[in-house]
Structures are given as structure tokens and as C-alpha cells.
Specification:
This protein is an alpha+beta fold. The protein has 9 helices and 11 strands.
Length: 307
């Protein structure tokens, strides 16, 4: 069974927030509700066998499983992880136009590590503005947001970094070191300071600091999103991240899989009626990837059989 010291700490953070966490042969998994399990550590590429999947379906009552596999497997939908593995990360690692914005931002703001107490005092309006600007609705309340951050405050590996303009917190990053890989969990910023390029300065400084630390070999800044526009990742790629090809896999419970197409059709209609529901958006994305995954598998099987 593959174990990870970082995943044990991350599991504790998830449990404190009310998530159910289980470990199987290839990975760890968590679910908040509705039986949808996400594998973690997120940067691991796994290929769970049928026995492991059955354990999740029948012992842990999973309805859907989402995980990442290597790009050369037959199952899964082509996708990517947003990663940076650049050694000696510096200005030369950044896109030329973005480099100018980084330098400008560093002149206009101070980037430093801040406390979770400060984040809890000033971070909620910043989070709300960012979601609105990006056209996203994560569907969490202030109490849920505060509890998530309080749960991380005393756990090793969690940090908050802020960009300060005139002493005001203009942007922040919450990160976690998952063994040799450092996760940028989320980044938020105030609209009125975007012209100061606070996101550029903050991201660059955080990336440079993390990659200079002993034992950290890569940064992970998410996977291709289910419910956000692709432009969300454009900023990351200009900063020096790269799309690492993977296959994104969604497995449905054997009792649900035969009905994936009508389920997806119903979810698409529901999403049109309630476009701001994060639950519907994620459910539609999960079933869409499941259908695409099975389609890709059938195409490969057909190609093999025809040769």
C-alpha cells in the first residue's frame, strides 16, 4: 500500500472539515457528500484495479470516482495537470510580457508569509471578489471558508502568503507541501489592485521561494477544471507552469454506468435551469468525462482489433 506522510496530514485537514477519507492500495480518497470520491495526492498518477474499485463502490458506497492516470493508458479522457518543475526558477522562467508585470508588481507591493489569523480577518471579501470576477460559484459560506482555514492553521505544511499594498492585504495564496511537491491550493485577489499586478508578484515570489527549498522538486497548481473556463489556466502557463499530459478518469458505480448518457442529458438541462449551481456543474462535468473516457476506450479497442 502506497503511503505518504504529506497525505496523512492532508487527510487530517479534510477530516476536520467533515470529509470522509479512505485509503486503498493505490491512493487516498475523500468525499464530502453524494458518494463522489476524489483521489489524492492529486499529482499521483494511478491505475486502480477492479478489486480496488469494487472496494470503493461496495464498502465505501462510492457512486463516482475521479482520479488521474498516465497519458498512455487506454481509459480516461485526455487532460492535464498544471505543474512547474523548473530548476533555478527566476525571471527567465517567465513569459516575457508577464516578466514585465512581475517586476512592476514587485515594485508596488510587498510579498511575505502571513498568519492564518490575518487571512481569517481579511481574506473572505478577497475570496468573494475573485469568484465573482472569474464567473465561479463555489457555493460555500463564510463559516465554511473560515472553518477550512482554521483547520489548517496548526498543521505542518500549510502556509499563507500575501501581497500587501500600503499595508492592505491585496492578494493571498494558501499552499501545502505534499512531500516533494508543493500545492498551490488557491489564490485570491482584490479587483482594485489587479492593475498593481499583485497576482503576478505574489505568484512569482511564492514559486521562486518554494522551488528554492530543499526537498521540493515540483509545484502543482491544479488539474484541468470541470466547471471553469480554460482561460483560468492561461495566467498560470505564462508564469512558468506547464500542462503535464495525463488522462482524467471518472468511473461510475456499475449500477449507474449503463445510464450515464441519460443522466448526463438530464444534468445538462438542469444546468441550464440553474446555471449558478456548483453541484450541478460538477456533476455534469463528471458524467461528461465518464462518457468521453468510455468513448476513447472503445476507439482504442476498435483500432487494436482492426490491426
Amino acid at each position: 500500500m502506497h503511503t505518504s506522510p504529506g497525505a496523512i496530514v492532508f487527510s487530517e485537514w479534510l477530516r476536520r472539515q467533515g470529509y470522509k477519507v479512505v485509503q486503498t492500495g493505490s491512493s487516498y480518497w475523500f468525499t464530502e457528500a453524494h458518494g463522489v470520491y476524489q483521489a489524492f495526492p492529486h499529482h499521483w498518477l494511478i491505475c486502480p484495479d477492479q478489486g480496488e474499485l469494487s472496494e470503493l463502490y461496495y464498502r465505501h458506497h462510492a457512486r463516482a470516482l475521479r482520479y488521474s492516470s498516465p497519458e498512455d493508458v487506454s481509459n480516461g479522457d485526455p487532460s492535464y495537470h498544471v505543474v512547474c518543475q523548473t530548476t533555478n526558477f527566476d525571471f527567465a522562467s517567465v513569459n516575457s510580457s508577464t516578466r514585465r508585470n512581475v517586476r512592476d508588481g514587485l515594485k508596488k507591493c510587498l510579498v511575505e508569509r502571513i498568519s492564518f489569523d490575518r487571512l481569517l480577518g481579511e481574506g473572505w471579501p478577497i475570496s468573494c471578489e475573485t469568484e465573482k470576477r472569474q464567473g465561479r460559484n463555489l457555493g460555500i459560506t463564510y463559516n465554511e471558508w473560515a472553518h477550512s482555514n482554521k483547520s489548517a492553521a496548526d498543521l505542518d505544511g500549510f502556509e499563507v502568503w500575501g501581497a500587501l499594498v500600503g499595508g492592505i492585504l491585496a492578494a493571498f495564496i494558501v499552499s501545502f507541501q505534499m512531500d516533494e511537491c508543493c500545492y498551490m491550493l488557491y489564490q485570491r485577489s482584490l479587483d482594485r489592485y489587479l492593475s498593481h499586478h499583485v497576482n503576478h508578484a505574489l505568484s512569482f515570489s511564492w514559486m521562486k521561494t518554494m522551488l528554492s527549498r530543499s526537498g521540493i522538486t515540483s509545484l502543482f497548481n491544479g488539474m484541468q477544471p470541470l466547471d471553469a473556463p480554460g482561460t483560468v489556466d492561461s495566467f498560470k502557463f505564462r508564469l512558468g507552469y506547464e500542462p503535464k499530459p495525463i488522462r482524467q478518469c471518472v468511473q461510475l458505480h456499475p449500477w449507474l454506468a449503463p445510464f450515464s448518457r441519460p443522466i448526463h442529458g438530464s444534468l445538462r438541462i438542469a444546468k441550464l435551469l440553474w446555471p449558478h449551481s456548483p453541484t450541478l456543474s460538477k456533476a455534469e462535468g463528471l458524467t461528461r468525462i465518464h462518457i468521453a473516457s468510455k468513448g476513447a476506450l472503445r476507439l482504442r479497442e476498435t483500432a487494436v482489433n482492426s490491426n
